[in-house]
Structure formats: structure tokens, C-alpha cells
Amino acid sequence: MSYKAALRVWRGDHGQGDLADYTVEVNDGEVVLDVLHRLQATQAGDLAIRWNCKAGKCGSCSMEINGRPRLACMTRMSIFEPDEVLTITPLRTFPVIRDLVTDVSFNYEKAREIPSFTPDPSVGLGEFRMQQVDVQRSQEFRKCIECYLCQNTCHVIRDHPENEREFAGPRFLMRIAELEMHPADTADRREIAQDDFGLGYCNITKCCTEVCPENIKITDNALIPMKERVVSRKYDPLVWLGSKISRRPLGTDTPSIPGKKS
Amino acid sequence: MTDIERLPYDVVVIGAGGSGLRAAIEARLAGKRTAIISKSLFGKAHTVMAEGGCAAAMGNVNPNDNWMVHFRDTMRGGKFLNNPRMAELHAKEAPDRVYELEAWGALFDRTPDGKISQRNFGGHEYPRLAHVGDRTGLEMIRTLQQKVVALQQEDWIAHGDPEAMIKVYAETTITRLIKDGEGRIAGAFGYIRETGQFVVFEAPAVILATGGIGKTFKVSSNSWEYTGDGHALALLAGAKLLNMEFVQFHPTHMVWPISVRGLLVTESVRGDGGVLRNSEGRRYMFDYVPDVFRAQYADTEEEADRWYKDPDHNRRPPELLPRDEVARANNAEVKAGRGSPHGGVFLDIASRLQADEILRRLPSMYHQFKELADVDITKEPMEVGPAQHYVMGGVEVDPDTGESCVPGLFAAGEVSGGMHGSNRLGGNSLSDLLVFGRRAGQGAADYIERLGPKVPVADEAEISAAQAEALAPLHRSAGENPYTVHGEVQDTMSNLVGIIRTETEIKKALAELEQLKVRSSETSAEGGSAYNPGWHLALDLRNIMLMAECVAAAALERQESRGGHTRDDYPGMRPDWRKVNLVCGLEGDKITITKQPTPPMRDDLIALFDRAELKKYLSEEEMAALPPEAVPATASAASEEMH
Q1: What is the tens place of the pLDDT at every residue in B571-589?
Q2: Exposed, middle or buried: residue A92 (CB in 10 Å: 0-12, 13-18, 19+)?
Q3: How far apart are the first and last CA of chain A?
Q4: Which residue, among B283, B224, B292, has the nearest Cα to B77 in the 3D structure?
Q5: Strand-strand pairing, A62-65 and A68-71
Q6: In sequence order, what are the residues at sequence separation of 6 or more whose Cβ sits closer than 8 angstroms to the Cβ of residue A158?
Q7: Best mutation site among A73, A117, A136, A196 for testing chain B: the one with the most B CBs within 10 Å?
Q8: Would you call A7 helix, strand, or coil by DSSP?
Q9: How would residue A246 be classed by pLDDT, with cut points 50, 70 and 90?
Q10: Is residue B18 a contact partner of residue B4, using CB atoms and an 8 Å limit?
């Protein structure tokens, strides 16, 4: 079974552009990316699309389809009515490079500011011993394919670009949670999560969880537990007492990486 | 448009998948300023699609495993055409490379005693694959990506600039390698996708880590990037390609809906107990066990099923034969009219494992079938069929250093040849990336040390020629649509040089490719040079065409069937052909094929096999020449001696 779909695709670059109308053939079982590829091969050879695996594993083809952030390769055409007009636009939070491709370098910059995995240096190669039940928590977060749909959706930066400096976004707050829950990590990132990466901006509306194509429970399993850990670090009387009597000054945490405010 | 940006480095790594990142990390650790050229965004490379695991004889699940058993399995899987030194290094070094990932933050699934768990896979005698559910490749690429970031953070503190020593050039494509007047590598020419800006990376050492050639075929599990770039760059720079006739058709991919045809269904489904059935419900793999493997595989369903619980006293299920065998069997069942409704066969895990166990072990598979085909794999069988998955052939390199015959040019991972012989075992790719990625990084660093201060200087005429070549599709106004030509190349290769080949069909393919070559050089791209996929494809087409020609030409030459090369007109392996590697070169614009003897296997490696097994692969003269004292009657005796 095949039909002609009406598509409105954003074309343009660097802030200049408009929706362009196309009519493209759709066949049984196809996803939005198939239809965009057909458009590219037959009508618009220079239509810029970022894609790679077409299997939902690389997280490249993020875009907004009828206003909802999605992976084009995992969005089946059958969820739309044949006479429904599909409006396809680039991710709104990031600057457009061309057509459906955006500049996501913000995310790579944030990734570089988070203090890396810090194992105990005395553990030799092959000597780590970890239980499945303990690695499973961080494993859930490591399912992340870095499609940045959560980053694009989070209103803290979607509606307020001025927060970009202070706020790392759900993906990278989850990265901090992942390292914090990693059984072999020795660093403490609780304070910088709050002070440098803006955990406090998150008001747990769960929009990030809703758009995650990997179904990671970002809010429930990463962000909320992280908030709880930050609170216990700040207000646990024992921790407070310990910090008074040890030689480490209060508030000593794993230092941020240069480039982030210290 | 005429300005070309110059970027000086010590080492340029082309490719940001597993082997490229591992190579770059090693070069940086050796103190070399390193550029990583990534065709896509950082962290998106095809390695993310690897599902099943990374083969390394750690012996965590079965303590009988060791490098010698892994070496034997690898040679058997490749039908003894593997470069034995590569197979040896790979088997010996893979465990440390996996442990290294763990030390960099990777979280593999665990055994009950807290070690890295290992799973069964086709052709591997023991559970050997370190894994994370069915997303092992993603774990690997993310770990390597994060290790690069960790090194950048060290450099940030040490030099005040995170990119002082290692920098990723995302969405950048290399179209030509540049040499000096003496034929040594002096750099690489390419463009940055976002702007179309041309760049020359000026560097004495280039490591190719570009992966495979899947986009030469219509139905392939490979991603967008797999256009044979590194293979083609090497050929054009004067290096040689080995074994290009050996293309792996992995036995299980989705066959429906049409748009996802070729989407990989991991071998772990079979490793974890899944079985293949035809439309009559018959578990047909028992009918396809070839003589060379009969001793190691069960001949009844009862024995095969007992093996999952008691592998020491039962033989393996035939569903876990090497991939080439299973792919041919699946193909044959469909051809015989016993296929599934959409032209595949049935892969059943639903009746073999509890639903919650399937969800835990194979979450991506569950997700993929549910989302894309409305099939619940915990309740019903999957429909699967073979698709192009991997190329065994690649750049001929020195096993220890990864260096090609062009001074300063190195290769690692799928773009290099020899390691896997005629067929790669599942799980041996991720380990290959790590072992030889590291070696190539070290090899390049050592080469630069030997070179001293007088580094090769890029030939300006080569740079100008590369620029003109890259601009041509944009300047040509009335050329053909590159998408159309690409589609036709894929049709030709899939229809005529696919899983089963004959002389008549390959000759027909070569004739069609001759026409397509002319058309591919006359395509034009509408639009400008900034992020223009039509232009990029027009440039990639040169590489795709070269790969199609190499595969077809080598396939015509090899008159036997072995591993990933099946000739209907020459069925069966021929011992004389085991001694021959086919080597592709380029003279002018013509592909040349020459025969070259395969490298000999050292006596201590030969001694890991017993005579009865060697007889299945070696010619009578070779058998007669074997040192009698070195080769015992049974191989197990040999491996015990070497413990």
C-alpha cells in the first residue's frame, strides 16, 4: 500500500528560512526518515539531514515532527493519518546549521566540563569486582544514545537560552548521576552538580523522560536521586561534623574542570 | 572557496569508531599531537551498532578458555586464511584491552562473583563475549569517547587548552591522502561538512580507521558512513587491499517492513538459546553442518539443548556455527520455498526463554521489533534473513604495527585485512578494533620517532588536484543525480555479487560497473558546499565504485567457495586456494588483482591443531611437510602442554 504524503519541511540556514511544501510517496512500514530520504533522492538533493545508523542506535536524526521531538528513524509513518500534513522542523533549542541540521556543540562542551570517571588507582587491570545489581543503575543511564532530545525539550534552556551557562541539561546531569552511582568511582560530584551544573534548576516536570527514545527514566532514576544526594551532602549533620573535624575544608568536592567557573 | 585551511598534527586518525578512537588514545598517550577525523558527530560511529559483545578469552565463565582456544576458533572461523600472526596477537591481547575499558569506566554485565560476564556466540568454543545486554558497541564507543574527553581534561589543566594534544574534527570527510615527493604520507585533504571549508591536515602519519563498505550493497546492516572511504583512500595512495572477495553476510536481519530490511538481529539471540525454523517448523540447522565442523556440533536437538546447561559433556547447537554457514543455510531454506511470509526464516526465542529473561538479555531486540514491526518477540518468532554486514578484506598491513606498504600509512579495524581470513566470527570485531587500534596508534608514534625532525612535506600539486576533484560535482551542471547512480550500483552488487555467486553473474556485474563508473564520475550536485548531502554522496560514489569493482574482480578470480565467498560454480574449499591471497591494487584507473602466497603459520601455532583437523584445510604436500613431532594427534594435548 502506498500513498502520497504532504510534508512541510523547514529549509534554510543561519536563522533565515521557511517551511517548504512537498508531496512524497510513502510505502507500507516506512518511517519518517525513509520519506525524507525519498524526498532527498528525488526532489531536494541538497536537503540537509543528519542521520547515520537508521536503527535507533546512534541518536543522529533528532528533529521535531509535528512539534514533538523525535528520532526520524524510529517514527513510523503509520502513526499519522494519510491525509495529515507533516511539519518537520529542526530541534528548536539549538542553532540551525542548515535545513534540519542543528549545531549541538553545546552538548559536547558540557560533556567536557564534568569531572571524568575516577577509579581507585591501586586497582589493577581486571581486578574490579562489581555486582550486577550495583552496575545496573548506571547501566540504565549508559543506554543513552546522545540524541539530545531531552536537552532540546527541557524548558530550562528551551525557553531560556540565558540558562545555558549555568545548566548542563538532563543528559549531563544524568551523566553525573551515572558516575556517582558507578560502583568503582571514587570522586564526589554532589556539590558541583548543584553549583556548577545547575541541578537546582530542574523542577522535575519529566519532559526529558517523556521524549527519551531509550525509555530511560531520567527524572525518577537519575535526577531525583541526585537531588536527594546533594541534599544529604549539604545538610547531613554527620557530614557537617566530619567536615569540621577533618582537615578538608567544608564544601570540598571533586574540583571542576578548568573552563567551568570554580 | 579557494582558501584551504592548514592544520599541522603528528598523527591524523581518519575514523572515530572503536579502532580510530583506540588508536588516537594510544598516539596521544605516546605524546603525539593527534587529530581525530569523524565523518559523523563524535560518538555516532558505526561501532554503536555492534550488539552482541567483544570476544576475549578471559575465562571468567569457563576457566578452560585461553588465548590458544580463541586462536583456534578464529582460524577455523576464517577457514585458515587468516593472517596467523594477527589472529595470535588478537587472541593474546584482547583480554587486557577489555579490562582497560573497564578501568576507563565501562560497565559490562557481571558474573555472580563480580567479574565481567561472557556470553556464547557462533564459532566460539566457550562463553567468551564481554557484553552489556545487546548494546555492547554503544558501551564501547561511549567509553572510548569519554576517555578522549578525560585526556582532554588533563591537557586543559596542563596546557590551558583541552584540544592542545587531541582534537576531534566532527562531521569532516577526507577525500584524498597527500604524499610528498618520495611517496611518503604527508597529510590528508578533506572538507568540513558544516561549511564546506577545505582543509589539509599536515601530518607524517595517517591511521585509517574508516570501517567497511556496506553501502556498496542494497541490503546491508551498515550505517550511512560505510562507503569504503579508507579502503579507497589507501588504494588511491598506492597501498594494497587483501581478500576483498570475502564479504560477510550475517545470517539474521529483519526482513520486514521493507524499510528496515537489513536491520541487524544480534547473534546473541542464538547464543542465548534462540533457534531457527522453517515454514514447516523444522529446526533445519542440523541439516547444514559441514564436514569440517561435524565433530564440534550436536546432531540431535536433545544434545544441542543439553549443551546450554552442560557444555562440557555435549556438543554445540548448529545454530551457533560460524556466520557464513548459517547465512547460506537461511538463504537455501528460502530458495527451497520453506521461508517465512516476508521471505525470511523464523528465529524463535519466545518458546525458549521466559519473557522477563528475554527483556533483560535482549532489550534492544525487543524494542526494535516492537517499535518497527509490531512483533512481540517474547510471544512470537522473528522473521529474519541474511544481509551484508562486514567486509573481511582490507588494507594489507604489518600485523604488529598496522603499517601498510605506503610509508606513514596505517590501518586498523574493519578497513584493514587479514585478521579474519575468509569469515569473521561474531564478537571478534570489537576486540579487533581495540587490539589493532592500539597497535596502530603505537605504530604511528614509533614511525614518527624514527622519522626524526625532517617530516615529509605535502606536494602542493596533489593538494590542488584534490581540491579540483572535490569541487567538480558542484561545478558540473547537467550531470546525473548521484542518488540514482548509487542505487543502481547497490542493485548490481546485491543481485550479482551477493551471498551466492557465479562466473556469469560476476562478469555481468563487472560489465555493468564499467558503465556505472563512467556515470558516477559525471554526477552533479545541486546547491552549495555547506552541509550538502547530494554533494557528499557524489564524492563518496568514487569510493563506492572502487569497492564494488574490487569485490567483483576478486570474486571472479577466486574459483572456490570459502567463508564469505560462495561460488555456485565452484562449490567447496580447495586446499590450493588456501595458500593464495588475492591482492587488489590500482594502476591508473584500473583495478589489478594479483595472487600472493598466504603468510606461513609458525610451528608452535600449527601445533595447536591436530592432524585430523589440519587435513581438512591443508593440501597433501603441506601435510607431508608438517614437522611430525610438532603436530600431535589431538589438539587438546597440545594446549595442555602449553598451559
Answers
A1: 999 999 999 999 999 999 9
A2: middle
A3: 60
A4: B292
A5: antiparallel
A6: A92, A93, A152
A7: A117
A8: strand
A9: low
A10: no
Query: Looking at CA atoms only, how far is residue B437 from chain A in angstroms?
Result: 19
- Residues of chain A with Cβ-Cβ distance to B107 below 8 Å are 130, 135, 138-139, 142, 182
Whether residues B531 and A60 touch (CB distance < 8 A) is answered with no
Whole-prediction pTM? 0.95
Closest chain A C-alpha to B196 CA, distance in angstroms? 12
In contact, A182 and A117? CB cutoff 8 Å: yes
Chain B contact for A115, CB < 8 A?
A: yes
Q: How far is B229 from chain A (nearest CA, A)?
A: 15
Gap from A97 CA to chain B (nearest CA, Å): 7
User: Whole-angstrom Cα distance, residue B348 to residue B279?
Assistant: 12
Q: CB count, 10 Å around CB of A237?
A: 7
Are the Cβ atoms of B146 and A40 closer than 8 angstroms?
A: no
Chains A, B: CB contacts under 8 A, how many? 184
Plot region of B368 (φ>0 → left; ψ -120 to 50 → alpha; else → beta) = alpha
Contacts of residue A245, Cβ cutoff 8 Å, sequence gap at least 6: none
For residue B257, is the peptide bond before it cis, meaning its omega torsion is within 30 degrees of 0? Answer: yes
Task: Give residues 216 to 255 of A whose Cβ lies within 8 Å of B.
Answer: none
Tell me how far apart the alpha carbons of residues B37 and B171 are, in angstroms, rounded to a whole number. 8
A53–B223 C-beta distance less than 8 A: yes
- Contact (CB, 8 A) for B238 and B577: no
Query: Based on C-alpha coordinates, what's the Rg of chain B?
Result: 24
Place of cell 518477540: B377
Contacts of residue B134 in chain A, CB cutoff 8 Å? none
Would you call B41 and A50 a contact, using CB atoms and an 8 Å cutoff? yes
Give B312's contacts (C-beta < 8 A, 6+ positions apart).
none
Which candidate, B141, B143, B321, places its Cα nearest to that of B223?
Answer: B141
**A123 touching B (Cβ < 8 Å):** yes
C-alpha–C-alpha distance, residues B565 and B562, integer Å: 5
Chain B CB contacts of A142 below 8 Å: 107, 132, 138-139, 142
Contact B261, B586 (CB under 8 A): no
- Residue B105: list chain A partners with CB under 8 A: 116-117, 119, 179, 182, 185
Terminal CA-to-CA distance of chain B, rounded, Å?
Answer: 63
**Cα(B11)–Cα(B207) distance, rounded to whole angstroms?**
7
- Neighboring chain B residues of A28 at a CB cutoff of 8 Å: 257-258
Q: What percent of chain B has pLDDT over 70?
A: 98
Confidence of residue B472 (pLDDT cuts 50, 70, 90): very high
Task: Report yes or no: A259 at the B interface, CB cutoff 8 Å.
Answer: yes
What is the rounded average pLDDT for all residues in chain B?
Answer: 95
Encode pLDDT of A139-176 as tens digits: 999 999 999 999 999 999 999 999 999 999 999 999 99
H helices of chain A, in order, are: 32-42, 105-113, 132-142, 149-153, 155-158, 170-181, 190-195, 207-211, 224-235, 237-245
B514: pLDDT confidence band, cut at 50, 70 and 90? Answer: very high
Nearest alpha carbon to residue A12 among A72, A100, A91, A87: A100
B8 has a chain A CB within 8 A of its CB: no
Burial of A6 (0-12, 13-18, 19+ CB in 10 A): middle
The verdict on A1 touching B (C-beta cutoff 8 Å) is no
Which of B58, B99, B139 has the CB atom closest to A142's CB atom? B139
Q: How far apart are CA A244 and CA B589, in angstroms?
A: 76
Q: What is the ipTM of this complex?
A: 0.94
